[in-house]
Structure formats: C-alpha cells, structure tokens
Amino acid sequence: MSSISSESRPRILLIGANGQVGWELAQTLSTLGDVTATTRTGFSLVVAECRPLDLTDANAIRACVNDVQPQLIVNAAAYTAVDRAESDTEMANWINADAVAVIAEAAKKIGAGVVHYSTDYVFNGAGDQPFCEDAPTGPLGAYGASKLAGEEALRSVGVDHLLLRVSWVYGVHGNNFVKTMLRLGLERPELSIVADQIGAPTSARAIAEATGQVLAQANGDFASFLNRVGGTYHFACDGTTSWHEFASEIFELANNADVPLSIRNVKAIPTADYPTPATRPLNSRLDCSKLTETFGIVGPSWQSALRATFANLRSTLPTATKADCKVA
Questions:
Q1: What is the predicted pLDDT for the residue at 231?
Q2: CATH of 10-175+200-234, one of 3.40.50.150, 3.30.930.10, 3.40.50.2300, 3.40.50.720
Q3: N or C terminus: fewer CB in 10 A for the chain?
Q4: Known catalytic membership, residue 143
Q5: Distance between CA 178 and CA 172 in Å, rounded?
Q6: What whole-number distance in Å separates Cα of residue 328 and Cα of residue 326?
Q7: How would you classify the pairing of strands 241-242 and 198-199?
Q8: With contact defined as beta carbons under 8 Å apart, do 324 and 263 qualify?
C-alpha cells in the first residue's frame, strides 16, 4: 500500500479506535494521512492523538468533526451486542443509526468523505447463495435492523461515502468468537456449536487492510474519489464455513501449537438446539465480486486470516507440558 507524502497528508478522523476493526485501522490509516482518533474515554494505545467522544451526544460529534476538520471520517464504532440489542434497542439504534446520521451530516457540511461498516445481518439469511449489494434486505433482529437504519441514514444524507458490509468479524483486540472458543477450550471437555449457519469468518486485520487498499487509490482526495466510486460494497474473507467448522479449526491450531486444551469433543448442533434472544441468519454468505471488479481487492482465505490472527494471540495462551494431552 502506498503512503501519502508528508507534505500533503490529509487529516483522518477515526471514530471507535478501540474496537476490533478500529484497532487495526489505526495502523493502516496512518499510512494515508494524519490520524486523530476517538474512543469513549479518550485513551488509545494505538493512536497518539486521541479524544473522548460520546456517540450519544450529537453536539459532541459535531464539535469533534468541526474541530478536527478531517478530509475523511472512518466510523468503526458500533453497537455489536446482538442479543442484548433485543432489549436495548434504543441504544443500539442510537449508536448504529442516529449517530451515523449526525456523522454523515457533519462530514457533508465540511466536504469530508465517510467510510462506514455494516453487516451481513441486514439480510434475512434465506437461501444458499451469496447476497449481492442490491439484494433485498430483511433483518431478523434488532441489531440488524439498527445497522440497516444506519445504512439508510448514510445514504439519505448524500455524503460521499464507502459502506462496507462485513461478516463474522473477529480479531486480536476485543471480545469475539475466536477468543471465546480458546477460553472455553481451555476450560471444558465438550462444546456444542451451531453447524447450520454458514458464512465467512473475517478478521479485523483483513477488513482494515482492504479499507486501506481502497483508500490508497484516492491519493489523498477522499471525497472526490468516493463521489466517483463510493457506495455499498461487500467484503469478507474468501471461502465459507459453519460456526462448528470454524471452532474446530481454532482448536486444531491451538492443539498444534501445544496449547493445553481441555476440549475433547466439538459437537455439531442445529440452530434450533441453541436458542438465543436474537435470531441469526442461516445464510451469511456475501458476494464480494463488486469490490474485486472495482478496486481489484480479494480477501484472504478465512483459514489463512485465522492463522495470522492466532499467531498474534498465541503469546497470550498457556503452553502445554508433557503431561498435557492433545485434542482427540
């Protein structure tokens, strides 16, 4: 990825720098401009210039944008607690939709472009074919509905933007499926994992790298670039799998790295046997061909992205002794 010369570096505002994707974006965006980050507390280990920002305060959002005067705003903040959103819909809607509208309006007022992230959960999961960008939406739960409302808010404002729908996100930073499986795999001999939900696990690092590869093509003129080729795109790692197969791959990597796992059996179960407050789509496949055709970007295989993430997590995990047994 090429970087912008120091003489003409644009200002980039990264909202949500301590999230899974925001954490990774801090590195990739730094090659494209001078990054100012926001977090809820104003503290970040990855961005030197960081400010506190309460996304439930519309005036605070406007003031931050007006003060920084960025050429690009990258919104990596989101309410992602899928099940909790069913009972906390007001907060989910504010963070995922209302705040997006305020960000978009503030960006448009100063002529900045916007990058925003959405989810496969805007679809109903019917069928077994990948969803393209213009496929009919139909979220099954409050989280998906709030993210869809954010998409619609972004478009209705008319700001120059890039909207990336992503799926099954995990990473080195924050809470996610990979970390949960590793923790449970150390504690329990058996787990039951859903096997009839199909999608593409996508690492936060892959998302950040794809975002950087797109934006590098703007050569610093983000709004003009997004005006020409922006809009809605899908990005996910290559290939598809189930949560059960994903978990099994995680345990195989840990086993081969001599992590002292307790897990001995990973049982495949249908979604019906694992009821949750929010209904998940059975089909989370995304058609990413538009991103490839427009920008020449192809995501890594989900297996290789997982291996790269696991390599970065390995130092946080215990090491087996000769007395430890490996997964059967």
A1: 97
A2: 3.40.50.720
A3: C
A4: yes
A5: 9
A6: 6
A7: antiparallel
A8: no
Q: What is the pLDDT of residues 153-180, one digit of tens each?
A: 999 999 999 999 999 999 999 899 999 9
Give me Rg for the CA atoms of the chain.
Answer: 20
Domains of the chain, by residue range, sit at 10-175+200-234
The pLDDT assigned to 5 comes to 47
Residue with structure tokens 């509208």? 101
Q: What is the Cα–Cα distance from 84 to 265, expressed in whole angstroms?
A: 29
Query: What tokens does 192 get?
Result: 């039951």
Overall size of the chain counted in residues:
328
CA–CA distances in Å: residue 309 to residues 40, 61, 79, 135, 181: 25, 32, 23, 31, 14
Contact (Cβ atoms closer than 8 angstroms) between residue 95 and residue 55:
yes
* Terminal-residue alpha carbon distance, the chain: 43
pLDDT (tens digit per residue) in 32-81: 999 999 998 888 777 778 999 999 999 999 999 999 999 999 999 999 99
Q: List the catalytic residue out of 79, 121, 143, 233.
A: 143
Indicate left, alpha or beta for 69 from its phi (over 0: left) and psi (-120 to 50: alpha): left
Contact 50, 37 (CB under 8 A): yes
pTM of the shown model: 0.93
Q: Which bin fits 140, alpha (ψ -120 to 50), beta or left (φ > 0)? A: alpha
The residue whose two tokens read 């992503």 is 166
pLDDT at 326 (0 to 100): 42
